[in-house]
Amino acid sequence: xxxxxxxRVVVIGGTSGVGLAVAxxxxxxxxxxxxxxxxxxxxxxxxxxxxxxxxxxxxxxxxESVQSFFDSVGEFDHxxxxxxxxxxxxxxxxxxxxEAQRFFDIRLFRALDTVRASLSSLxxxxxxxxxxxxxxxxxxxxxxLGAAMSGAVISAARSLANELAPRRVNVVALGIVRTPxxxxxxxxxxxxxxxxxxxxxxxxxxxxxxDVAKSFIHLMDQDYVTGTVSLVDGGGVLN
Length: 239
Ligand SMILES: NC(=O)c1ccc[n+]([C@@H]2O[C@H](COP(=O)([O-])OP(=O)(O)OC[C@H]3O[C@@H](n4cnc5c(N)ncnc54)[C@H](OP(=O)(O)O)[C@@H]3O)[C@@H](O)[C@H]2O)c1
What we know:
The chain is of the alpha/beta class. The protein has one domain: 3-Layer(aba) Sandwich (Rossmann fold), CATH 3.40.50. The chain has 8 helices and 7 strands; from the N terminus they run βαβαβαβαβααβααβ. The mean pLDDT is 96.
């Protein structure tokens, strides 16, 4: 897959996990890449692995930080948003509105604020790719917040695709992916999570971030697709 060498890709959350893999894949596909995430340290660490890419800190929870990020980036073609913080699980019996709001904040509310702030520099032929979870389609005990947030991101993207046309807006909906998102768990808990998540797919394994990054590149490259969801879950929803 290739992207125009003149095309500029901005990856918010591009210093770790899925976003870092998208940044790598976009460089490999020939594009210019700008990564942004919360800390200067993680940006510098990511840039050390991304020859030719640029980046700068941006905290999506601050409107001012987001605005100054886009002011400094200038015109670009593709926005990818993969920022996310700790996972929140739980059953409806444990539901706490404050925890739900925290969980939705970066993944939905700040994603939309980032889209808003990007519009003055995102070219009309460009694209936006947001991130959600395949739990939107399956759910189940313990996935309440992830399912609700993912459904909201998918619906928001469909609405944005209409509103922002001819710019394209799509979502990649992920099953469990092996990334630093799970680093808060013990090694034993992670091994058990990845083993059971892999068994719950049709392909029989949990993917690496590089595997799922391909779908983000496809959605940038395929300029006749908008308002859609790329479900990247190894067939998990069918199992
Ligand atoms: N991994 C999975 O199994 C999985 C499954 C389904 C959905 N997802 C979703 O996919 C997305 C990416 O997940 P991942 O696994 O790649 O996670 P990750 O490895 O933890 O990466 C998250 C990225 O978000 C950035 N970030 C966090 N808070 C930020 C803020 N306030 N402002 C700017 N950037 C911020 C982090 O940057 P800093 O390090 O600088 O803070 C990091 O670059 C998340 O929304 C996640 O919920 C992941």
